[in-house]
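Researcher: Here's a chain I'd like modeled. Treat it as a single chain, no partners, no ligands.
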Amino acid sequence: MIDRLVAAVRELPPESTQQAVGYPSLFLLVALGALLPVVPTGAIVSSAAVVAFHQTEPLSLLFVFLVASCAAFLGDLALYWLGQRGVRSRGGSRWLASLRGRVTPERLAHAQERLESHQVSVLVLSRLVPAGRIPVMLACLLAGMPLRRFARGDLPACLAWAATYQLIGILGGSLFPEPWEGVVAAVGLTLLISAVPPVWRRLRRQRGETPAASRDKHA
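Model: Modeled as a single isolated chain. Structure tokens:
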């Protein structure tokens, strides 16, 4: 996969073609990633920022930021609206079931506690923490938060998210002279960031289970 990515970036077309194809593709991929959380949208935004960093057009980075944040925001609203339909329906919906299937009861309870304490502001942090968006969104759905109120909290969250991953791409682009090198570095960094929270949760779970197992042994 990395070899194909390197080959694709090495053979980049002219800037006009990149912009004509790149911005719509960026929008579609980020919006799709908001609806289907299996798409690595952070890596996509960082890669687009690397390519924009090496372009001569001074507004390229601004366009990447605007397209990514707008796509993330609209994708979040669409997913939330679909989830609301499931909450209101007696039989639920496959979208709501999909959201529930991606969140453990412990993470949902933690998200609900944070939502009660910090209200809408917790949405901003949920977007910045890898894999934190879906538990908070599900907590908002189960709490009956209106779509308009969710949108008010989600807009700054999407702006902060797009800016963060764009900065990762700019960092990768500034460290390497070739765009493909910056793309590889940015993708590697975003994947590393995404892998940290699951590992941390697993370590915490193991540490929590070890004392319990020790007490059971000596009981």
